[in-house]
Amino acid sequence: MTNDESRGGVASVAKACKVLRAFSPTVGVLSVRQVSARAGIPRSTAHELCRTLVSEGMLEGAGGGYQLGPLLLELAGQIIERTGLLRAGEGILDSLVRAPEQDAHLCQLTQGWIVYLDRNSSPSHVPAANQVGQRAPAHLTVCGKVALSWLPFDKVVAHVEKCCAESAVPAPDLKQLEAELTQARQDGFLASRSVQQGRTSVAAPIFDSSGTPIGGVSLSGPAGMFTTAVVESARASVTHAAGLISARLISAAPAWTR
Fold first, then answer.
1. What is the per-residue pLDDT across 212-250, written as a single tens digit (0 to 9) for each?
2. C-alpha span between 169 and 42 (Å, rounded)
3. Distance between CA 57 and CA 1 in Å, rounded?
4. Element (H, E) at 71
C-alpha cells in the first residue's frame, strides 16, 4: 500500500496532482524528465500521467514538453468568480499607483497561499516577480502576511507548514513571524522591505461578509522612494482601497451572511 492509499486517497489521483504542482509561473514548460524529478515519481509514470492529462485538457504539449492546459484556466475562473474578489476590486487599483515604478496588487488568500489576481503598474514600472496568476506561500508576501494576521496563530502555523512542505520552502522563524503578524493586526496594515529585495510593499487586508480575511491590496515600489511620508500615504491608500473592496463584497453577499 502506498502512502497516498494509506491516507485514504487514490494513488493515481495524488500523483496526477503532483504532476500539476510541478509547474510554476517561472517554470512553465517541463519535459517528462523534469516532471518526474519535480513530482518525485518514476519517469514512466510521469509520461503516462502527462499523456492522460493532455487528453483531459489539464496539460498541453509545448516545445517537446508540457505546459498547463486550458481546462485549468476554466476551473480557476470559476473559483475566482465564486469569491467575487476580482469583480469587487474593479477600478480600485487604478487610484493606487501614484508614482513612477510603483505597482498595485490585488491578492486572494487560499489555504495559506496567495494568488495574484490583478496588477496595475505605472508606465515606467520595473519588472516584478509578482505576476498575475502566480501563487506563493502567504507568509512570504506582504498581502499574505497582512491577511494571515487576522487568523489564529495555530491556524497560521498549519498553513505555513503545509505550504513549506508542498513548495520545498524553508520554514520561517515562527516567533518572528508571530510578532510581525501581531503588529500588523494592531496597525491594520503592514509595511515590509523584506519580501522583495530592493522594494518596499505596503498592504491592507480584505474581509468577506463573515469577517474572514480573504486577501489584500498592496502598493509597492523601490525602497528608496518609500520615505516615512510615502509609507504613511501608501498606508492611507491601501487601507481605503481594502475597505472599499470589503464593502463591495459585503453588499453583494446574501443578507443572512452579512
1. 999 999 998 888 888 899 899 999 999 999 999 999 988
2. 23
3. 30
4. helix 70-83
